[in-house]
Amino acid sequence: MPKENPISTDTERKRKSRQEIKLLSTESIWLQKAIFALQKVETAREKLAKHRGEEESGFVLMRSADGSELAVEDFVEAIEMRIRYLLDEVRDRRNTMR
């Protein structure tokens, strides 16, 4: 059985690592865009309420059958936590590659 070339194995490992870093970064970017979009939606809702002369209500993403609600602020906070995790993971992986 032929021995694997250690250089090609190392190159392949680095390539996979760079690819994972790119995918983690891409997820983070899309989550940041989602937060931006939610902020734009909230601004539009506030303007509509003001235009109609209505009281601004909390921005609720969804209501479940049992009546519980998921506020957008809680959802955004969860997304921000995921973004921080992803960025930490990217930083750690880049440091490992060096």
Instruction: Name the structural class.
Output: mainly alpha
Q: If you average the pLDDT, what whole number results?
A: 88
Amino- and carboxy-terminal Cα gap: 32 Å
Strand content: 5-15%
Helix content: over 70%
Number of strands: 2
- The outline comes out as elongated
Are there runs of 5+ residues with pLDDT below 50, and where? none
Give the ordered list of helices and strands: HEEH
As an assembly, this protein is single chain
How much is the radius of gyration in Å?
22 Å
Tally of helical segments: 2
The main β sheet shows up as: 2 strands, antiparallel
| Arrangement of strands in the largest sheet | 1-2
Walkthrough of the structure:
This protein has 98 residues and is mainly alpha-helical. 74% of the residues lie in helices and 7% in strands. The protein is built from two helices and two strands. The chain has helices spanning 6-52, 72-97, and strands at 60-63, 69-71. The protein has a two-stranded antiparallel ribbon with strand order 1-2. α1 (6-52) packs antiparallel against α2 (72-97). The radius of gyration is 22 Å and the shape is elongated.
Write the layout of secondary structure elements.
Blueprint: H1 6-52, E1 60-63, E2 69-71, H2 72-97
Antiparallel strand pairs: 1-2
Which features would summarize this protein structure in a list?
single chain; 2 strands; mainly alpha; 98 residues; 2 helices; 7% strand; two-stranded antiparallel sheet; elongated
How would you summarize this macromolecular structure in one to three sentences?
With 98 residues, the protein is mainly alpha-helical.
